[in-house]
Amino acid sequence: MAVIVVGGMIGLGKSSVSKLLGDSLDSEVFYESVQDNPILPLFYTASDEEIQQKRYPFLLQLYFLDTRFKSIKQALSDNRNVLDRSIYEDWYFAKINKDLGRISDLEFSVYESLLGNMMEELGELPKKAPDLMVYLKASFDTVMYRIGLRGREFEQDEGLVEYYRTLHESYDAWLFNHYKASEVLVIDMDTVDVVNNPEDAQVVVDQVKTKLNEMGIK
User: Fold this and answer.
1) Catalytic residue from among 84, 99, 172, 200
2) What is the pLDDT of residues 153-195, one digit of tens each?
């Protein structure tokens, strides 16, 4: 029994891998709030002027922080769940948006204070952290191809390419230098297609099960 978080760049198949693992391990899956998220399309389509006026990046981070906090609390209380992204990655997105000037220093300070309070609360739970991060890693070309392939209209604007590039450039560094909550298993998504290739899907499941066995988790 384990709590697994699936992380990595936008577009690499976190939801598909999460469903695959949930089905294979007989676990509930907590999906990232995307389809029902009222702010996400505004975040992607707003002009620079609208971003400054409406503060969509900050609002989006608060929305995700709230939903991810609820999900991780539920997941940790049951000890047998898979999360499609999690609260542990949330800070990285907020930091990138601050570095890009889309979130102000004051907003980021408020965000970090809220996040700190939430992490303290998680520390009071019987199970305090996930067991494993399944990290989906790929080249920037693969990221852009997969984003285009899934066809979410609000993600396709050419003006978003540099945003995606900035996220991609430091994602691995965040994982290896800042993520300390659990063990990590890296999956190379340049060579894996869990949606269209059943053999690839089984390879990923086998890798996760092997890792859990090595950790003494059945």
Assistant:
1) 84
2) 555 566 678 889 999 999 999 999 999 999 999 999 999 999 8
Provide CB contacts within 8 A for 68, sequence distance 6+.
Answer: 32, 85, 86, 87, 90
Enumerate the domain spans of the chain: 3-214
pTM reported for the whole predicted model? 0.91
Q: Which fold has domain 3-214?
A: Rossmann fold (3.40.50)
* Residue 197 CA, distance from chain mean position: 23
Q: How far is CA 120 from the centre of its chain?
A: 20
Q: How many whole angstroms separate alpha carbon 119 and alpha carbon 91?
A: 12
CA 172 to chain centre: 13
Which pair of tokens denotes residue 193? 């297609």
Length, in residues, of the chain: 218
DSSP assignment string, 63-93: HHHHHHHHHHHHHHHHT-EEEES-HHHHHHH
Active-site residue flag, 206: no
